Structures are given as structure tokens and as C-alpha cells.
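TICKET #2291
ISSUE: user wants both folds in one file
ATTACHMENT 1:
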Amino acid sequence: MRYAARMASNIIIRGARANDLPVLGKLGALLVRMHHGFDAQRFMAPDAGVEEGYAWFLGHELKNPEAVVLVAELAHEGAEPEVIGYTYAGMEPRSWKELRDRAGFIHDVVVSPDVRAQGVGTRLLEAASEWLIAHGAPRIMLWTAERNPGAQRLFERVGFRRTMIEMTRER
């Protein structure tokens, strides 16, 4: 636990930069692989270029004024800081098909497996929420995989509530 307390003080949440994209691609690929493992029919298969594809996607979102990509960076004494997680969020317009008004949406929250359950995800969620509120979000939404109870507990702990259940039927 001393490591967790020490680590929390060494974490900086900042806007992602282009030179972060290779690491973000790897973290995004973790997300793709995890979700595919939850339900291979529902979630896309992680192909050979998944890291590069996710890096390209997040790089594109860095230029989107309605979106934010934030990283959690761990400072190491005498070494370069290390990106250990990220979040990607954006403002979504009113949606008649989803029956909701304009909202902030947190699309991704990913933390490196070796530093999970130490507050990094919470810090990323709070920073993304602050950005969304500053950009006029009257509410903040997110989706979570049915088979990801750890993420669901995190989201509930920071104030999210269940509102919809996605159901999928294969042909």
C-alpha cells in the first residue's frame, strides 16, 4: 500500500501528445483484446495492426475540438515519466435514436495492468469529467462491458448509475 500512496503523488494527468501515440496504441489494443475476450461475437477481433490502428484513431481525435485524450503519467526518480493509462472522452450532440440530449461521453478508460486498483482510473475519470463539464456537458455518460465488473464498480464508486442495457443478437 505504501507503493500505491507514493505512486499517487507521482501521477500527472495531462493532455495527450503525438509522441504518446505508440503507448496509447498499445493501451488501446489491451482494451480491444479484453473486450473481444468478453464476447468475441460482439467486439471487434484484435488483428495484427490493432496497436497502430488505435494509435491512428486516437491521433485523429487529438485534433477534434469536441474530444479530449488525457494520459496518466508516472514520474520515476532519475528517469523519463511513463504513460500508464489514458482516457478518451468527447461531447456528443443530442441523439433522437438514443433518446438523450447533448451529453459528455467517456469512451475509453485504460490503465496498465500492473498499476490497476491504485487510483489511476479514478483520476482519469475525474479529469475527463472536468473537461466535459467545462465544455458544457449537462451529464456524463459511458458504456461498460457486461462482463467487466471491476470497471462497473469503479464507475459506480465515482457516481455513475446504470441507465441502459445493450442487447445483441447475432444473425
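ATTACHMENT 2:
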Amino acid sequence: MRIANEALWTRAVDFHGHACPGLAIGFRMVLEAASFLGIDRAAEDEEIVCITENDACCVDAAQALLGCTLGKGNLLLKPRGKAAMTFYRRSSGKGCRVVWLGLGERVFTREEKIAFLLSSGSAACFSVREVEGPVPEKAQLCRSVPCVACGERVSETMLRPYEGGLYCLDCWPNVSRILP
């Protein structure tokens, strides 16, 4: 990105609420993806897409710096518990997956870890590779339908049928024996 890294780090910290190693990891992941994909500004709409594999601090960097949000539909959660994010640039159709590889056997204090991650020498802590496959579809507007049990309106994509009725996930009598 063209703005000085210090200004970007400040933006990420302000958005997240504090500086922490997880945010620093996400910050570096975003910078790696932006460099790989040629991104120089945040998304105004859905032109940049982020698929995050965790719901931790690092995700806030993608929101603060790239404009990827749940509300716009260009931040998608694929819960895998991994410090990994896949980014797409719709205009080029190009994508990359950035994975945090860890620090190996090194031991750092919290402050040392943040400083190390923000330094240019930490690129070896990340794997960046191009991804194949289509860019995720743009966000779709769906009807809201009341759940037959609780009456609350639910996106039709999240309803489950059971004995002729449509249920929200909280009320759905899951008879499959597979726990949600």
C-alpha cells in the first residue's frame, strides 16, 4: 500500500482498540496480500474480498485497511481455526492465500513480538501463494421468513425444513445426530 506503514498501523490499532501480536499478524498478512495483488486502497464496495479462517484479532486488520466487512459481504468467515486469510481482487480475478507460519522456537515478550512482526524481516513468518478458482459471488439479498417456532424473521438461506415447517437454526429440531 502506498501510505506509510506507520499510518496504516495506527489506523489498524485505532480500529481494533489496542496494539497486540494478533493484530500485528493480521497487519502483515494484509500488507503481504496487498503487495501480491497490487492493492493500494481500501474497498469502497466489494472489489476486495477476504475469506478469513479464524475470528481472532488479525481479522480487524483486513477490516480497517482493506474495507472488508461482514455488512458489505466482502468479509467471509470460513472457521478453521487457522491464522490464514484468502484475498481476492475482483477487477483482476486474482487471489492469494496468506498463512501465518509462526515464529519457530523464538521466545518474545508481547512488545518484542509486535516489534518483530512490524519489521521488514518477518516476511519469512508468512506463506503467500496464488489461489485458483472463482472469486466468491457478490453478496445476495435474501428474503426474511418467520421461523415457525419462535416467529423471528430469518434469512431464507438459514432456515431448515422439518415436518412441513421452516425453522431457524436455534429452533430447528436437529434429528441428524450430528451436532451443530
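RESOLUTION: both attachments delivered.
EXTRA DETAIL ON ATTACHMENT 2: The chain has a mean pLDDT of 89.
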